[in-house]
């Protein structure tokens, strides 16, 4: 009885989180649209005028911007129990899309961008660590899947996707800072955002793992 109740609660949380992340992903895609014209003074690029002329940085920026929605959406669909149960071939294809795009395209671009991040060395260190952790967790998720260790694969996918969502949480916290008008100078604000955009995500991922969320997903998959 208790186990069934816990399963219903976890199912409700899973649906709520899925819908919330899907909506946030939609908003992120809208934020990415202005960049399709490749103009140098649009939105975030207004703060990068001093390095916009660097071809490597500029290419990395556009690669990261245009691949991030693909990664966020494909990563989210990996947690769809319907796809896992009914469309396993599609589930695997989407999973490969997520990991290959992340590991070989978006994450390397994000690493290059992190070296030039706003906020100076402290913020740059945060984004470098984020990029490295993003690559490592995703690589381990891939390795565990190849070895057939499904439980470990799911755990590392949760960690990987938690870091993927830093693109959303960074903008969410930035929005809250504006709404509540925190009295911090721009550099301090960005440094703070650079860390809270991903460290709490990893902590939440570990809490979910301790709450046996991976086991719940695996049981739903079968």
Report on the architecture of this protein.
The protein is mostly helical. It has one domain (2-221). It contains ten helices and no strands. Helix 5 (120-146) packs antiparallel against helix 6 (150-164) and helix 6 (150-164) crosses helix 10. The longest helix has 31 residues, at 2-32. The mean pLDDT is 87.
Classify the oligomer: single chain
Major beta sheet, specifics? none
Strand proportion, as a percent range, falls in: under 5%
- The whole-angstrom Rg is 18 Å
Provide tags for this entry.
single chain, 10 helices
In short:
With 222 residues, this protein is mainly alpha-helical. It is 79% helix and 0% strand.
Task: Set down the secondary structure blueprint.
Blueprint: H1 2-32, H2 55-77, H3 81-86, H4 88-114, H5 120-146, H6 150-164, H7 166-180, H8 186-196, H9 199-210, H10 213-221
């Amino acid at each position: 009885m208790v186990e069934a109740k816990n399963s219903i609660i976890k199912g409700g949380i899973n649906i709520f989180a899925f819908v919330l992340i899907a909506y946030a992903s939609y908003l992120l895609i809208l934020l990415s649209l202005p960049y399709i014209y490749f103009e140098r003074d649009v939105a975030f690029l207004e703060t990068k005028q001093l390095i916009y002329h660097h071809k490597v940085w500029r290419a990395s920026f556009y690669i990261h911007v245009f691949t991030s929605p693909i990664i966020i959406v494909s990563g989210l669909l990996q947690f769809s129990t319907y796809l896992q149960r009914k469309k396993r071939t599609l589930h695997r294809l989407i999973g490969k899309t997520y990991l290959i795009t992340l590991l070989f395209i978006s994450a390397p671009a994000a690493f290059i961008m992190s070296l030039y991040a706003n906020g100076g060395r402290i913020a740059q260190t945060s984004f470098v660590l984020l990029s490295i952790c993003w690559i490592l967790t995703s690589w381990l998720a891939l390795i565990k899947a190849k070895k057939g260790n499904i439980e470990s694969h799911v755990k590392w996918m949760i960690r990987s996707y938690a870091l993927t969502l830093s693109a959303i949480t960074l903008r969410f916290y930035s929005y809250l800072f504006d709404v509540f008008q925190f009295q911090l100078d721009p550099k301090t604000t960005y440094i703070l955002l650079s860390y809270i955009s991903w460290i709490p995500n990893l902590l939440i991922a570990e809490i979910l793992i301790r709450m046996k969320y991976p086991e719940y997903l695996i049981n739903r998959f079968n």
